[in-house]
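[audit] Reproducing an earlier prediction to check determinism. Same input, same settings, fresh worker. If the tokens differ from the archived copy the diff job will pick it up downstream; this log only records the rerun itself.
[audit] input (416 residues):
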Amino acid sequence: MSSPVTTAYEDITGAEEDVRDREARNGVRHMVSLSMTKVADGLIDPKLVLSWLAGALGAPAAVTGLLVPIREAGALLPQLALAGWVQSMSHRKWAWVFGSLGQGIAAAAVVLIALTLEGLTAGLALCGALAVLALSRAACSVSYKDILGKTVGKTRRGAVTGVAGSAASIAVIVFAGLLLSGLLRDVTPVVIAIGIASVLWIVAAGLFSRIEEQASEDTENTSIDFTPLKKDRQFRLFIAVRGLLTVTALAPPYFVLLGNGQSALEGLGALLLASAAAAFLGSYVWGRFSDRSSRKVLFVSGLLAALFAVLAVVAEVTGWAQTAWVIPALLFFFMLSYQGVRSARSVYLVDMSPKDARSTYAALANTAIGTLLLVTGALGGLLALAGPMASLIAFAALSLAGGVLALRLDEVQTDA
């Protein structure tokens, strides 16, 4: 007879077959750990929280502008170097545990910086702490897909990660609501929120350490194998699709720029609220659909993202953007599409990768995407000189191309 945990896990994931109690326990630990780290991500979001904090501490704008690139590229580019270290571990969960602990320590450092430093010194110290956080996140990212593949069965992985995203978004919605209300315009409550993020990362590390992971074989060879890039056509195609769809992560700030009636803080608060609400509604649903066909989710998400980017441009041209609810509503639906891309790309990579090479595949893909993020980010910045509409039009074209290209990917969820 199944335990209550196993029964609940089967209901959440929609398992069509009985799952072992061990997988159910692991699945629940995944959900709770990821929920805590996703809440922490929202509480220390560089696009909003750290940027505002840097400004409140008197850091120069040029230094503040470094925060988002450090966070985004710093979490992806080191993964190729870290993959060998991860592959040398017989139990890869420890890489994730160390990474989560590192993020918690870095967040605690941010709290200390906010309480003791000001001006340029504070800004540079925040950049340093964020670099440590990004590197620690890279360790979590490069190891996680391997751990997920080893501990959770195919057709249930998207639901596991999706329910974590939906659960975590509730807390972020509350935080965003407080931000928009004007209650968080003082440094103290923001510092408290970052302190909570630090605790959440550390607790998540402790819980994740209890994952029941079988030892990996052949851990002596720690060199990175570039063979997948040379011989695996589907892997190269997946990188191309994901690279084109990176624009879904870069476009949201340009939506905010279309709304001229809000202050910068309120606009960024609206971005955080739209993102959290979309994550709450979309993470679990997209995760379940990704378990059925992640390539189709990439296709649909790419098309929807392109549609709402174009509609935002139309709203600006016609003057509808000045209506208070129009841009926030379009932004919400765009972020819903972004959640589809996030869910499907993760599930597809786990399911397509050979069992013993998931860390290598993840590292190669994420390093390539980190580079492409810098390129597309620079492209968006250049186009923004002509206004946010130019950037959104370009992003819509790239998103549409990525969605259509996704149809050429193999269907990996149908494999046994």
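[audit] rerun output stored. Observation attached for the diff report: Residues 20-213 form a domain with the Growth Hormone; Chain: A; fold (CATH 1.20.1250.20).
[audit] end
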